[in-house]
Amino acid sequence: MHGPVLHPHTELRFINDTIGYGVVATRPIPQGTVTWVRDRFDQSFTAAEVGAMSPPYRAIVDKFSFVDRHGHYVLCWDLARFLNHSCRANCLAAGYDFEVAVRDIAPGEELTDDYGTLNLDVPFHCDCGAPDCRKTIYPDDLLRLGVAWDALLAEPFARLGAVEQPLEALSATTADWPRAKAACAGLEPIASCRDNYRARDARR
Ligand SMILES: C[S@@+](CC[C@H](N)C(=O)[O-])C[C@H]1O[C@@H](n2cnc3c(N)ncnc32)[C@H](O)[C@@H]1O
Ligand SMILES: [Zn+2]
């Protein structure tokens, strides 16, 4: 059971009672592989649309969506909505609408990203268990920690063109992949993850 916009070599598994379900690799996923790309089936809502939703719908958006650089709430239609947060995330986004494996991911290992990159509405309590767990993940973590995440992205981006990219064909709806390739070729700088920041009061 997997969706094509999340890496095909993944499946949904129960992680534990605190975290619930999560996405686990079924085969090795090398550093530099795009693990998730925004695609045309993902739904997006303005802040006003979310504000007008009834509580049960609102709860789904609150739990499963992230906010993009335009301030829109994006609800992934596939297993990507089950990606959990880790303070030692193995998947991160630079300033594009896709995430890459920042290190090699082994079969059986959970794919995780950092909710600090997702423009949270409210602080998030983390139980990831990493030795350097930040405990509370804040809406403006991108501004405070973005420089460190950009540094973590340099090595995987250098490998972007050298590893198999099963999701590339699905990136047709975005200009971000060609931009990223130009960056890998040294034609422009790699866009900073901080480009994805959108303050809460700047959402409509
Ligand atoms: C996008 S969903 C991820 C899928 C979720 N685990 C599930 O089973 O539906 C986000 C929710 O997962 C849980 N979660 C994800 N990462 C977590 C973490 N590091 N610590 C505690 N809870 C986490 C929280 O309940 C959070 O609201
Ligand atoms: Zn943590």
- CATH structural fold name: Beta-clip-like
> What gyration radius follows from the Cα positions, in whole Å?
16 Å
- Based on the coordinates given, report the CATH architecture: Beta Complex
Report how far the terminal alpha carbons are from each other: 35 Å
Structure description:
With 204 residues, the protein is of the alpha+beta class. The chain has one domain: Beta-clip-like (Beta Complex), CATH 2.170.270.10. Helices cover 21% and strands 21% of the residues. The protein has a four-stranded mixed β-sheet with strand order 1-2-10-7, with no helix packed on it. A three-stranded antiparallel β-sheet has the order 3-9-8, with helices on one face. Bound molecules: S-adenosylmethionine (SAM) and zinc ion (ZN).
